[in-house]
Amino acid sequence: MATRLRRIAHNTNGVFDRAYAVCCEPALAPVGAIDTAPLPPRATAPPHALRLFHFNDLHNHLSVYDADGTVLPRFSVMSRIVRRARAGAAPAVFLSVGDDHTGGILDEIASDRTGRFRLDPSYRVFSAAGVDVAAIGNHEFDRGSAHLAQAIRQDAAFPILSANVHSSQNLEPGRDFHPAIIALIGGWRVGFVGLTSRIETRAPQNGDPTIRVANPVTALERLLPPLSKVCDTVVILSHCGYGDSGRATGKAAVARDLGEADFAVAACADVHSTAPVTLLGAHTHTRLNEHGFEPENRIGAVPIMQAEANGKFLGEVTLEGTPPAFADARLHPIDARDDHDTVLFDDHIRPLFDEVDTALSETIFENDIAGLDWDVTQRTRYGGECGVANLFTDAVVARVAALTGRAPDLAMLTGGSLLSGLPVGPVSYRHFFEVMPYPDEVYIVDAAPEELADILCSNARRVLRPEETLATDRFIGRGFVHFSAALRYRIDPGADAASARPRDVELGGEPLCARREPIRIATVSYLALGGFGERWAGQEIGGGVMPGLAGFDMRALPQSPTGLFFRREVEAHLRGLGRIDADPHDGRLVLNGQPAMRSSSSE
Fold this sequence. Notes:
Distance between the termini: 75 Å
CATH topology of the largest domain: Purple Acid Phosphatase, chain A, domain 2
CATH class of the largest domain: Alpha Beta
Strand order of the largest sheet: 1-2-10-11-13-14-16-15
Largest sheet: 8 strands, mixed
Number of domains: 2
CATH architecture of the largest domain: 4-Layer Sandwich
Helix content: 10-25%
Oligomer: single chain
C-alpha cells in the first residue's frame, strides 16, 4: 500500500515553502512507497546550496545569568546568525535536534505549583525565531507525554519529529508529531527524519503506560528507502548520541550505554538511502567539527555533526551540488557579547525571565555548613557519603510524612541527580535549582528486606573505587545511590567491584536481617522507572564498572506515584528550616573499612 503525504502547517517565520507529513508509523510496520501526487513539480533551477543551522540539548537555556544576575543573550545570538544567513542567496534552515526542555531555570514557569501546564518557553521562542523543525529528545518526556502534547499544540509553530516513538495515549501521531516530513525549500525536496534515544527516554510512564520507544535503526531502515527515493537530500535529526555504547564522549566521563546510537544510525543510512544523507546529532553533549569537518566523523558517506549543549555553539552545515550533498561543517561559538536579535530578546525571551527573576533572587534558607559546595559534592556523589544527598533524602522523608500522614522508612536518590552544591551563606532559589534541576516525581517503592539487601549489594558494586581516577564533575552513568538517615552501613570494596559488599547494615537502629515487614522507600521517578542510563533496570552495570555484573531491577518492585515533586518537597522543607546549622554528614555510609559513626538512636 502506498504511503500518503499530507500537507501540514510550517513555521511562517522559517524558510520552508511547503511541508508535507509522511503518514506512516515505521516503529510499528514497514513503510510502503510514498505517493508523491500531492507534491508540486520539481523546480527547474533549484538553488545550488543549502545551509543547515543546528543546535541540540538546549535544555531551556534561552539566556543565562551573569554573576550579578543580569540576563545575557544566548539563543538570540544564534537567531541573529541565522537571520543574517537568510539574507543571503542560499536557503538557511534552522533546526533543533531535541532536549529543548529540563535543566534551565525557565522550567519553573512551564507549569504552575501543582504541575499543570502553563506554557512552553523554548517552543514559544523557537516559533518566533523561525525554527523550522525540532526532534523529540528524551528530556521532552520529563513532565509527562500529556505535558509535551500541550506544549506542542499551544506553542510549537513548526513540525516535531520522531520516527520511533509510538503508542502514546496522549501524543497523537500525525497531529502532535510525525516520523518524517518532506519540505520544499527553494525548489529542493528535503526529507527530515527524527529519532529518539531508546535507552534514556521515560517510556512507559505514569499517565501513559502504553508509550514506547522502538529501536531507532529499525525505524530508519523501514522509512529511509522510500523517503530517499522521492527526496533530493535527507537530514536525520538523531537524538541518540554520538558513537556507540563503548565510548566516553561529551558529558560522560566513562563509556555510556547509548543503545543504537549515531554510528549505527549512520551505517544504516549509508546502506539504505538513495539520496545524500546528513546526520545532525545530540544527546551526548559532544562538540564535533568545531573548526571544520573532521574526517573521522563520517560513517561511509554519511557525515555526523553535533553542537555540544546548552546553547554554547550553533552548528552550520553546507550542502552543495545537484542533488545537494554534504560539503562542510563548523561550529559558531555563542558569546553574549556578540550581536544578537534584540527584537527576539526584548519581545520574547526577556519577558520569560522577568517572570522568574523575583523567585530566583529570593533567599530560601541560610547555610552555615561548609562541605556542601560543588567541589565536595561532585567528589562524593558517586563515591561516598554526600552531605547534599543526606540533606535532600532526609527532607523528603519529612515532607512525605507530613503531607501523607505516613512516613516512608527511607528515601533514596541517585548521585547523578545532583548537578551543583550549596554555598555557605544565603542560598537563593537560583542556587538551589542548580543543584537539582530535574522535575522528578516522588515514587513510593516497596522492598522486602532481602530486596533492599540486594539493592545495597548492587550499590556497593557501583561505588567509585579509590583506584579509579574518573572526572567526577562529569556524568558517570553507574547509578550510585544515597539513602536517608535511617539506613546506616559500610561498603567493603573488596579486591574488585564483583567482590564489593555492604556490611553492618542497620535500618532504624536494628540489623536489616531482623526486619520482617516490607520497607517503604521514597525515591525519584527516574530511579523507580529503571534509572535509564544509570542501569537500575536489571541490565549490566555501566559507567566504567567491570563487565558482567548485573544490576538490580528497580522496576520489579511494587511502586506508586505520589503526585509530589522531589525538588519542590526538598525546597519546602529547607524553607521551613530557614537555616542549616547541623552538619548532615553523620556517618550513615562508611567506606574502606572505617568504623561506622553511630547515631544516638542506635547506641
